[in-house]
Structures are given as C-alpha cells and as structure tokens.
Amino acid sequence: MDCGIFTSKTVLLFLSLVFWAAGAVLAYVGAYVIKSYGNFDSFIQDKYTLVPAAIIIGVSVVMFIFGLVGCCATIRESKVGLSFFFLIIMAIFAAEVAALVFSFIYKGKINADLERSMSEVFVNYDGQTTETKAVDYLQTQLQCCGVMNYTHWSNTTWFNSHNNTVPLSCCKNRTSQCTGRVDQPDLLNTQGCEVKLDQLLQDVLSYAMLVILGFAIIKFFGMLSVCVITCKTGSRRNGYQPLYA
Questions:
Q1: What is the CA radius of gyration of the chain?
Q2: CA 111 to CA 209: how far, in whole Å?
Q3: What backbone phi and psi angles, to 5 degrees, belong to 165?
Q4: pLDDT of residue 244
Q5: DSSP state for residue 168 in the 8-state scheme
Q6: Which of 64, 91, 102, 135 has a CA positioned 20 to 30 A from the CA of residue 141?
Q7: CA end-to-end span of the chain
Q8: Confidence class of residue 43 from pLDDT cuts 50, 70 and 90?
Q9: For residue 87, is it left (φ>0), alpha (ψ between -120 and 50) or beta?
Q10: For every residue of 74-131, which 3-state class applies, written as one string?
Q11: Using one digit for the tens of pLDDT, what is the confidence trace for 210-221?
Q12: How many CB atoms lie within 10 A of CB 156?
C-alpha cells in the first residue's frame, strides 16, 4: 500500500474513532458552559454569550452521527463516501471556527454590562425573591460580598432596613458569631463578586476555546487526508502511475 494512502487512512480512521469521544467531550464542555452561565443568569443580560456553547453542542451531535460514515468510507476507499465525509469535516471545521470567533467577540463583552446588571439585582435584594436566592448562591459559591466589595451593600434597601447589616451569605462561616455587621470584617468575605464572577466566566470560555481549537486542528488534517486518498485512488483507477514508481 502506498505510504501516503496508508498514512492518510490511519489519520482518517483515527479521526473517525475519536469522533464519538470528541463529541462526548464537546457535549460536556457545551453543557458545562451553559450550566456555569445558568447558575448566574440573573446577572448576565446578554444571552448571546451562550451562542458558542449552543454551537458546541450542535457540533457534538453531528460528530456522533457521522463518525461511522467516515470509518466505513475510509476502509472501502469509497470516493462518494470520502467526498461526503470531507463535506462533513469541512462543515464541522467551519462551525468550530465560528464558535472560536464568537468566543473571542463575547469574551471581551462579558465585563461590559456585568457591573450594571449585578448592581440592579443586588439593589432589589429582599431575602425572598428568586433574584435574592441567586445573590445568596453567588456570594456563597464565590465567597464574595457585594458587587465591588462588601461596603457596596450600604447603598441598598436591605442594608438600611436590617440594622446596617449585609446578608448572611457574606459570612465566611455560617456561625452564630457572624451576624452580617460591617464592623466585623474579619467574619465576612470582603472581596466583591463582580471580579470573581468575571474571572470565572472568562476561565470557562477560555477552556472551551482551547478544546474547540484542538479539534479544529484535527479536522484540518482530516480534510488533507481525504484529499490525498481521493487523488491517489483516482490515479490508480485511471491507470496513471506516479513518476517515482
């Protein structure tokens, strides 16, 4: 077997076999991004930041379906099958490039409206609503307090109507010693939530971008391999021999 065809077949078979694993990884990444945004959706008004995650999940579904097609087409050296597989790889490659572009665009926009939207939610904190639970969850999970820092609560209705105290979700440890009084900062998480939330979302998006880039590179070499096999088998069937034969 021609070395070029053998190498190309090996690449395509490997690509076909990892389609399912890659699809599972991409599905996990997309779901993880959506879950991470979903936990803090009260603070994020621009829902278009979820577009990369939706694209990732869509790509993973396609990869599961067409993994078998690539394997069969490569083994049989079917020109029609390989052409179809090439179109599949190219479409997925284009979708992954689009996801990368969207990620770069929205990565810079995350912080733009975060402070304003978070301030609106924190101001409406009353200890009962769904937004209140979101604030408590945010402050507990990220170990933060207020938008910029714990003193931000002094501008809210909650602070003024509860004896100048912050919510108990600001406490480092939920003990009887911590009552939310701002004159006991050693018992409170004093760092603001905006910086921590922004960093969390940036890290999640960066992780997703690295995964997408890695699989996009694999798809690129897959397309090259399809071209090599198609050209070589076409030459053999037409009776042409390479010059070095």
A1: 26
A2: 18
A3: -120, 160
A4: 38
A5: G
A6: 102
A7: 13
A8: low
A9: alpha
A10: HHHCCHHHHHHHHHHHHHHHHHHHHHHHHHHHHHCCCCCCHHHHHHHHHHCCCCCCHH
A11: 888 887 888 888
A12: 20
